[in-house]
Amino acid sequence: MEVLEVKALLKIRSFEKGFDEQAYVRIYNTCFRDYDDIRSMTLDELRGMEEFMSFSTDGVLIAEWNGEIAGMVNAYVDKQREEPKGFIQSLAVLPEFRGKGIATRLVEKAIESLRQRGMKTAEAWAQTDRKTCMCVFESFGFKQARVGSVMKKIVTNIPSNTGENNSVKMRQIRPKNDDDILLANRLDNEAFKEHFNYRPRSLEETKHMLSGLPFFKQQDGYFAILDDQPVGYVIVGIDAELNEEKKVKYGWILDIGVLQPYRRMGIGMSLMLAGLQWIRLKHMDEAWLYVDDLNPTGAFRLYAKLDFEVAKKNLAYQL
After folding, report:
1. Smaller CB count within 10 Å for the chain: N or C?
2. Rounded to an integer, what distance in angstroms lies between the CA atom of residue 284 and that of residue 317?
């Protein structure tokens, strides 16, 4: 096991597969359970996440204080991304070990780890109510690069005549059908190619997005068809375990995209209404989603028109 640092009572070391999974789950569940949109994960779910190309424990660092597990951070390198940008994720210190400078040392080691693997840019994020995380990142010279929103809407009354395209048809996505997986992959990559942090999504990732997301046992999706041509899609889901843990009834707009030539034609609105109807018919109270505030399609304005309101703000930092 490689030891990266020993300083006084603090030791920061690499995650050891087959040994540290329980520690990862315990830290994650303890430190993120008060987020509205995050719930406890199980060991099996962590193992399931490791099957995704967009998650890996290869860059996870574990902090120990006097031999006790104290915190972690993930210095994540996306092997499918061409640009040399790495990500600092899941920065967490257990409450009883806070105030000892552990988070600062974890971030320092995460930056070093990314640089050693050839990354020129490090990106991190923090919700605006997580002042300690913001201060730690800013102390290293991280600058705000982007602002995103977590948005929510009550779905008891879904509006109509809000600019939807009445000529568009919805076709349910068949998540196990190879042709539909290929089509969803093409639409997704074409619709998002000019977006912040875009990189092409593989067919395997699209397959997981449609039916294999570890936290969403209930999922569905629709293609938007205009003049017999597929021009967009929406993916929706319900995390029953989150709803049970938080004592809420949330449904999620997980992904939505419209091809560039067909924007400003009410197709995004039609897709959103289809997604909201699905969530309402599942007897949920609220619909939630994430959006980049500077989304080039104007998605934030679309959601506001549907009476979505901001629940939280997320800051993306870069160094």
Report:
1. N
2. 34
